[in-house]
Amino acid sequence: MAKFSKRILLFLAASLGMAPAALAQQDTALYHLQGVEIFGKPAEVFAAGSRVSTLDSSYLQTYTSRSLAEALQARTPIYFKTYGASGISSASFRGTSAGHTAVLWNGLNITLPSLGQSDFATLPLSSVGEVAMQHGAAGATYGSGAIGGAILLNSPTYGRQGFRGDLQQEVGSFGRYFSNAAASYSNEKLAVGISGNWQLAPNRFPYRDYATFGAPERKQEHAEVQQHGFAQDLVWHLSPKSKLSLHSWYTSTDREVQPALGAAYTNAQQLDKNLRLMAGYDYSSRWGQTSIKTAWFSDYLKYTDDNNYSVTDIQTYQVQAEQTYTYGKRWSLRGGVNLQHFTGDVEGYGGGVTEDRAAAFALFRFDPTEALELSLNMRQAFIKNYNPAPTPTVGANWKLASGQNHHLYLKGNVSGSYRVPTLNERFWQPGGNSNLKPEQGWNYESGLRHVYTLGSLLVESEATAYYMLVDNWVQWVPTPEGFWTPHNLQKVRSQGLELSSQASRQLGDLKLTATAGYTYTSTEQVKAYEGTEELDRQLAYVPLHKATFFTDAAFRTWSLSGNLSYNGLRYTNGNNTNFLPSFTLVGFALNKQFLLGQQKLIASARVDNATNTDYKTMQNLPMPGRQYALSLRFIIP
């Protein structure tokens, strides 16, 4: 233990002993911190050479009633495996598995320690204020699990002073109801907000039963979802140099597990309860910005069917301390430490388990000239018996050419990543494997970004090529005794191309925005340490092609948005003999705003899967066809 603590202290001392500073892109927003200038979006400051994107705020406002999974599936390159209309929804970022995407809330990781992944179907958009994505490996910045990418969620901000209220009611197809209420108040010293949501989705939609001769049409049964939750935020400026913040987020999702076609009905139910509490303190001084966050997360999952009963109850205690020092417009350094303590009361483990994790990190940003931005990041994690190798990141953005209307940037990075084996992988009985090694990944990427402006016309285009190797990939395999166990079975290569282009223009009262994106993702096993070698074949449930197109138009009190998402063929087994066909989903939303004195009433009509496409994201689990929704939203003031 003494050696363990000494390694932490030495690394932390090295991190905090260096002086820092930061400057980012010249063509993005400007942020102020006690007289120090930091350019760029917060997620981009220490991510030079990486692809970082965000969900548009107007889209988040329009689709408040949807889950994070539905939003990211419609407007990002990430593919989501959704286990039917009521099942869990997991991410496949750059062809990696569900456990290879880190999810952070206000800077702290909220991924379930038991499963090592997040169920995006339990994360409602109405409870978050900003959604950003860092594509590719980001282990140095975000820690365990950030192999394929990271999803960054932040609480709402309350910039407008005074009181604000928001009431929304939505009704939709197949018996769906959604209600949301929010209120906030802010002044120069204090900002406080609270919101609550409730949803009922019986999901009694018609489908074709292809497991029965003649494929008769049936109505889906046993796929109901009930969800409710609340979020609370408080930011108190104690002085011009310090502030205290308190955040809470609770969701309860009670759902009937949709049975697969042809499978026996077992009355399966799943209940998820997730409570997240966080407190933060920020202080500015001549030594820079000090930030301390402490959190407690409670994740409860109960699964029952006619033959099984399983309860998972995990408590996570987390502390993160950071010191950021910025010098002028040239460089910035952030050093910090993250501590986690897990306690698990899981029937499947045969008793309670505990685990401590620690990580020390240093993030460095240096801009030697206005045309060149560099970042160098490093993280070392400490977990008893599972210490992964240090994970560095080296990245650069270079303004290659600049003209009157054009700016061309060359970017690239090399980054390491890791994933520590989950509690289930090590402690589940029978089958847990305490001899697992951490997964280790390396990501190499390069790309071009072009910005064109002409009057009110703005066109931003980006192309990124990447190559990734993940070693000691964990896979669950059956045993002769009849149960499953995880092993470090293979090395996996993921390589691909990400293309995107967005154009926006203001024509008087009319504002138009259109975005197109395409991803090519080739993910294959290149080496097998045990079992069958299925080399040079696409991994199951990873589409080779995905494309998105969406547009938004706003004219005075009217707005119209459209979404198109194409998802290519996906194999359902390792030898690529069975597959699910490609599918395209189309959706539209029309909003009309009415002014009632100082208040606003927004009426919305939305159609999802407008072409009534018959599709599946997982084998033998039908998804809903065309769906309609009507919504009224009252905003004060």
TrEMBL record:
Residues 49-150 form the TonB-dependent receptor plug domain. Keywords: Cell outer membrane, Membrane, Receptor, Signal, TonB box, Transmembrane, Transmembrane beta strand, Transport. Residues 252-609 form the TonB-dependent receptor-like beta-barrel domain. It is a multi-pass membrane protein. The keyword Membrane applies. InterPro entries: Beta-barrel_TonB, Beta-barrel_TonB_sf, Plug_dom, Plug_dom_sf, TonB-dep_rcpt-like. It is found in: Cell outer membrane. Residues 1-24 form the signal peptide. The keyword Acyltransferase does not apply. It holds the Pfam family TonB_dep_Rec_b-barrel. It comes from the Bacteria. Belongs to the TonB-dependent receptor family. This is TonB-dependent receptor plug domain-containing protein. It comes from Pontibacter ruber.
